[in-house]
Structure formats: structure tokens, C-alpha cells
Automatic annotation (TrEMBL):
This is Pyridoxal phosphate homeostasis protein. It comes from Nitrosococcus oceani C-27. Belongs to the pyridoxal phosphate-binding protein YggS/PROSC family. PROSITE patterns: UPF0001. Its cofactor is pyridoxal 5'-phosphate.
Length: 231
């Protein structure tokens, strides 16, 4: 077994154990392998183990990887900050975008999603901890953004995403995830059909699963530590 195969198996086990520990249905949490800075060979090693969903943060880096792996039929998730001039390529080459935080970006993605493709799956990124360094809409602005995005013809609003500040304590890790889940429930009560909560990474995936994550985005635990700190 390669090291990536072994580490990926450990992440699947962590997810399954957290589902069990926190009373989540088996298989209710899926894994997006965050492959930023990883070479295609590392992605291939994960694909060989059955991993299908990959998350990328940087468009210039992602496009050649997506092209090289075209025949594998993988599912690509854009999880990084989005600049307006990148929306056309994101709308064309990705299946999901987790980091939509502004109306203008959502409008461009909807307008630029090629007609022959299914609507682009979108999560709205919420800045729970209110840190100015992290992108995301505020909890106050969320409902307005969500009700606009749900009307956009070429987007399929699937849920919410957050990227909270690092914290090593399980209880403290759970708090922002609980808040995101509550915001998600609030939108569902307004009649929006959301099915996805994208939260949890290498260091806090258990806390996120405890609070209802349906998608965890994990990089380091699968591929090893990255050359520079990317979060
Ligand atoms: C890098 C990244 C991840 C994965 O982080 P790890 O700590 O390496 O698991 C998840 N989500 C986003 C948005 C990221 O940029």
C-alpha cells in the first residue's frame, strides 16, 4: 500500500468512527480530498483507492490537473477564494463551488456556466468567527444572498460552507459548526432545499461531523503537509 493509500484509509476510518460516535447515519458524510499543491501522481494514488471528489483552491494550478485527469471522470470542487476574472473557468471546469460569498460572483458563475453542463453545485461560504482575514458572507447577509442564488438558473444551491479559526479543543471546534448548522436550518425553514454542509478539515473533522457536516474537506491527513501554509 502506498503512503497516500494508507493515509486515505485512515481518513475514511476517522469519518466512519465519527459517524458512529455522534449518531450520524453510516455513509452520511462524504470526503472531498483537498489536493491543492499536490501533484497529479498523488491524486492518482487516491483515485486508485476509489476517491472521486477533489478540492482545489488555485485555478491556475487546478486547470492542468483537471485536464490531465479528464478521462477519470472525477468530481472537482473549487474551495478557494474567487476573483471575478476567474469565474468563467471555474464555471466551465468544476462541478461544485464551496466558496461563493458575493452576489456578483454568483451571478457571473450562473451566466458563465456552459449550457450543456448540469447546473453548478454551490455552497455559500459563511464567515462565522467574523475574522476580517477570512472570506465569507456574514450571518446577517446570508439570507439575502441565499434567496438570490436559489433563483439563479444555472446554479444549484446545495448548502453552506465555513472555514473557522483553528482550535485544538473539541468543544471550541464544535461551536462555529453548530452555528453554521443553525443558519442552514433557518434557511431550510424558509423553504430552501439545502442538503449539504461543507465543514471540517484535517484537524477538526470529528467536531464537524458531530455538528452535522455532510462534506468534509481534508488535505493534510491524506497527502501530508503542504510546502506552505494555505489557509
Ligand atoms: C486546504 C483546505 C482544506 C484542507 O485543509 P487540511 O487542514 O489540509 O485538511 C479544506 N478547506 C479549504 C477551504 C482549504 O483551503
Amino acid at each position: 500500500m502506498t503512503q497516500i493509500a494508507q493515509q486515505l484509509a485512515e481518513v475514511y476510518t476517522r469519518i466512519a468512527q465519527a459517524e458512529q460516535r455522534f449518531g450520524r447515519p453510516k455513509g452520511s458524510v462524504s470526503l472531498v480530498a483537498a489536493s491543492k499543491t499536490c501533484p497529479v501522481s498523488a491524486i492518482r494514488a487516491a483515485v486508485a483507492c476509489g476517491q472521486r471528489a477533489f478540492g482545489e483552491n488555485y485555478l491556475q494550478e487546478a486547470l492542468p490537473k483537471i485536464k490531465e485527469l479528464e478521462t477519470e471522470g472525477l468530481e472537482w470542487h473549487f474551495i478557494g477564494p474567487i476573483q471575478s476574472n476567474k469565474t468563467r473557468d471555474i464555471a466551465t471546469h468544476f462541478d461544485w463551488v464551496h466558496s461563493v460569498a458575493r452576489l456578483k460572483i454568483a451571478q457571473r458563475l450562473s451566466q458563465q456556466r456552459p449550457p450543456e453542463l448540469a447546473p453548478l453545485n454551490v455552497c455559500l461560504q459563511v464567515n462565522i468567527s467574523g475574522e476580517s482575514s477570512k472570506s465569507g458572507t456574514t450571518a446577517q447577509e446570508l439570507a439575502e444572498l441565499a434567496t438570490a442564488v436559489v433563483e439563479m438558473p444555472r446554479l444549484s444551491l446545495r448548502g453552506l460552507m465555513t472555514l473557522p479559526a483553528l482550535n485544538s479543543d473539541l468543544e471550541a471546534q464544535r461551536r462555529p459548526f453548530r452555528t453554521l448548522h443553525q443558519l442552514w436550518e433557518g434557511l431550510r425553514q424558509k423553504g430552501l432545499t439545502l442538503d449539504s454542509l461543507s465543514m471540517g478539515m484535517t484537524d477538526d473533522l470529528e467536531a464537524a461531523i458531530a455538528e452535522g457536516a455532510t462534506l468534509v474537506r481534508v488535505g493534510t491527513a491524506i497527502f501530508g503537509s503542504r510546502p506552505r501554509k494555505d489557509r
